Amino acid sequence: MTSMFHVANANQLLAGLPSFEQDAFIAVCETVELVFGEVLLQPTETINHVYFPIDSFISLISKLDSDDQIEVTMAGREGMLGISLVLGIDESPLLALVQGAGTAFRLNAVSFQALLLKCPVLHQRLKHYIYVVMCQLARSVACNHFHRIEARLARWLLMTQDRAGCDQLHLTHEFLAMMLGVRRAGITLAAISLQTRGLIRYQRGEITVLDRPGLIEAACGCYNQDCALYARILPVA
């Protein structure tokens, strides 16, 4: 059975909840395994479940009519999938794709919305999370337009490492190109540059982060700004 300690420490949005709200969450959630490449939600599809990742993480991808697509944000243990339900909207404009396999808390939509009515602290934290995501989405648009591919790749690897909780990331150039919305050749050149500087090692679809401080220095300032925003808006007591 899911323990109160487990809930409080497994996902940052649930940290600091009073014991009553933790008990209420435990009563309606289940722990599920998310599989790499699994599509949890299609754009405009009705949200039937929300997910609070524990050691998994989810890419949220914007798709155009031409089938072009680009990742605009991620949800790992710092976030959740299905946040639009907090606004009373039962659909999402984004494709939700499991990028990192692992576990997550899952609640059905009806139970989640009922939970919000009796858990004011959780409700408030989730409204703050909406603001964080809005800021991240806005920054992502500007970052994709103005910043160099190498800096964007460094930022994306740091974001992925934060959620994966390890230095080894299983990523192909094709997947990275799709996530960043650039040509594969651009990813290749950027990865070679980061590897030449001793920041990463890339081999056969696996990237190993060798020098995290150096990678932070190589990334655009968006990474540090996102981290600082989250810490300020969603502090853990």
What does this structure look like?
InterPro entries: cNMP-bd_dom_sf, Env_Response_Regulators, HTH_CRP, RmlC-like_jellyroll, WH-like_DNA-bd_sf, WH_DNA-bd_sf. This is Crp/Fnr family transcriptional regulator. Keywords: DNA-binding, Transcription, Transcription regulation. Residues 147-213 form the HTH crp-type domain. The protein has 237 residues and is α+β, with helices and mostly antiparallel strands. The protein has two domains: 4-143, Jelly Rolls (Sandwich), CATH 2.60.120.10; 148-219, Winged helix-like DNA-binding domain superfamily/Winged helix DNA-binding domain (Arc Repressor Mutant, subunit A). Helix content is 46%, strand content 22%. The chain is built from nine helices and ten strands. Strands 2-6-4-5 form a four-stranded antiparallel sheet. A three-stranded antiparallel sheet has the order 1-7-3. A hairpin with a 2-residue loop joins strand 9 and strand 10. Helix 4 (120-146) packs antiparallel against helix 9 (222-233) and helix 6 crosses helix 7 (184-196). The longest helix is centred in the middle third of the chain and has 27 residues, at 120-146. It is globular. The two termini are 26 Å apart.
Please state the average pLDDT score.
92
Which CATH class of the largest domain is shown? Mainly Beta
Q: Give start-end ranges of low-pLDDT stretches.
A: none
Architecture (CATH level 2) name of the largest domain? Sandwich
The largest sheet is:
4 strands, antiparallel
The total tally of domains equals: 2
Distance between the termini: 26 Å
Approximate strand percentage:
15-25%
Structural class: alpha+beta
Q: Compute the number of strand runs.
A: 10
C-alpha-based Rg, rounded: 18 Å
